[in-house]
């Protein structure tokens, strides 16, 4: 059975959905859960990935590029992503900007830490 929940890219909503899955009255439902696909937003991944190790629940994010780095993967043994983390693109960005001869670049971002890895 697949359960679909909308986390709305808000950490508290995503955590509530995770808790709802764990605290279900049908205990066989959680025991039969093999993992979670998502959350999609970088700002909501870290809390779920951190908690998932205590429940041995795999978390696979399909679009969260930031927040959790491969440098601290031991802290998140059940977290996997299908997209590269932001910092892996920095060499491509630098090469592209140099090839274009650009010496100044402005970065516009939304609130949160989703794009913080671009600012180094």
Task: List the SSEs and their pairings.
Blueprint (H helix, E strand, L loop, with lengths): L10 H12 L4 H5 L3 E3 L4 H14 L2 E4 L17 E3 L8 H11 L20
Parallel strand pairs: 1-2, 2-3
How would you characterize this protein structure?
The chain is mainly alpha-helical and 120 residues long. The protein is built from four helices and three strands. It has a three-stranded parallel β-sheet with strand order 1-2-3, with helices on one face. Strand 1, helix 3 and strand 2 form a beta-alpha-beta unit. Helix 1 packs parallel to helix 3. The chain is elongated.
Short description:
With 120 residues, this protein is mostly helical. It has helices at residues 11-22, 27-31, 42-55, 90-100; strands at residues 35-37, 58-61, 79-81.
Terminal-residue CA separation: 43 Å
Percent range for helical residues?
25-40%
Integer average pLDDT: 81
Question: What is the structural class?
Answer: mainly alpha
Cα-atom radius of gyration: 17 Å
- Helix-strand pattern: HHEHEEH
* Mass-distribution shape: elongated
Q: DSSP helix count? A: 4
User: How large is the share of residues in beta strands?
Assistant: 5-15%
Biggest sheet record: 3 strands, parallel
Low-pLDDT residue spans: none
According to DSSP, the number of beta strands is 3
Q: Record the strand order, biggest sheet.
A: 1-2-3
Please tag this protein with its features.
120 residues, mainly alpha, three-stranded parallel sheet, 4 helices
